[in-house]
Amino acid sequence: MKVNWLKFSALAALVNCALAKQPNILFIITDDQDGHMGSVEHMPLLKKHLIDKGTSFENHFCTIAICCPSRVNLWTGRAAHNTNVTDVGPPYGGYPKIVKEGINDDYLPVWMQAAGYNTYYTGKLWNAHTINNYNQPFVKGYNGSDFLLDPFTYDYWHARMSRNGQTPKDYSGQYSPDVVADKAYGFLEEAIAGDAPFFVTVAPIAPHSNIVAHPLTGLLNELEVLAPGAVNKFAIPEYAPRHAHLFKDYKIPRTEDFNPEEASGASWIAQLPKLNDTMIEYNDEFQRARLRALQSVDEMIERLVHLLDSKGVLEDTYVIFTTDNGFHASQHRMHPGKECGYDTDIHIPLVIRGPGLAAGDKRNIVTSHTDMAPTLLSIAGASRDDFDGLAIPLVSDKKSAQIAARGEHVNVEFWGIGLPEGKFGIVQPDGGLSYPNNTYKALRLVSKDYSLFYSVWCTGEREFYDVRRDPGQMHNFFADPKLAKDYTLAGRSWQQLIYRLDALLVVLKTCKGNTCVKPWESHHEDGSVAILTEALNPKFDNYYLKYPKVGFSSCELGYIKSAEGNQDHISHAGVSWMTDVEAPVQRGQEPFQYRGSWSDWV
Length: 602
Known about the structure:
glycosaminoglycan binding, 27% helix, Alkaline Phosphatase, subunit A, globular, hydrolase, EC 3.1.6.1, 602 residues
């Protein structure tokens, strides 16, 4: 196909002109919205105003599937192992940890103000941002703000919010997503009337589980964080009465991973019993309620787009829609929840409408939340050199070079426990909610030729899925050696493939800056290898055979570097790529057998 370079140059000039004028940004982020159970498909106004008028990024991922660390990743452009915010509450996460790590002084809204933007935010910002610590210190970076505060953040009918640092106000009796929508409309009106470009973020809690705050008498000041237990439980999301009639016949898609006959996965997931009919019906209703809760967000999208249009600024505004992380319900026999590395939890929606973006387009480049801060700052015409991600190219030239420049990998990580939600999610005798040993490192690779997932758990267990053949991520090669016996990629055995994936993950689990963007250069300093298939060249077999493997010495609840195995990379000095090639190749003809740790593989 011939490229009309004159037309493309004109389009590029138009985009450059728009960027020079610093376009406006409206950023909408939902909470726990799934990408695999039809939530986007059940938002017709999102489709009408953003999907049909903008570009959908089909391979967008979060890098840590829990809200607070994911939002820190999004607003800083740094991986969770570099922000050191890895949980929703102290000591490893939440607002106190964010302040301690200096993030309140050095993150996207602060940078956007420095770039000349008026900034506004309403809805949920951080977990453990409470009615008691909202002014310790005040959140920085916003001209106007109205934050949902714990312990009422996820209580759909009893929200408490602090506007511009003032004493929290009680909104009991009003539906929280509608309250946030009204505040968003007001801030957007104020922003449009201002004398500078604006960056407005709207963060309703839908479709997150409902958590009713029931502080006991005299304990209100101690109820800083909504912790699961006898007092606070993750219940079916609440929805506005006007949406109660919707989705009566909806059922979660009965895909292969839906409540399978045989257990799958690793660690606690592999031990789950099959869900019974009562649980399945409950989970279906749980997801119906999530879809109903999202309808208020859908209505808000149309309302805000109409406001932009009526004020004549829609064409000068980037409207971005995404969520913090995905969600599962019945897949792999799991109760509703997140915190896993599977696509249900990390593969999420990203839609952008704005100058230069094609209407109704779908892009297949690999993107993640680590790329969002660089992207937004790039829209503002500014930049930094300390990002772990890369600005997303908003104008596609449809050339493969652009895709190759971005890479094909996403670094995924998690520390702590798994939290099942809903009334059947209680797994402890005392009524507590938790699955231990949910700490893992993983990577996701997507290209036109393959789609892979590889994870290493703190327990020593490992997972590998060919997601193109196995979209439900049901058939773990490490659990079934027969799968690996005849498997090849680019003509190489599965064992040689795993050597490469493990070496890539060793780099990504501690990467920083450009190393996160181009991790293969840590192995091939001459830049000769940029993608997996290039690393699979047989001349590199001896090097990857000897390279340190990913491992943990213990399962920790947060990022404790000393517990995460060998931190040193093999030096390139003295390595001969062509030495001892034959021995590793011959050794690689036999499939791996798991015996507890990497040193036990044969």
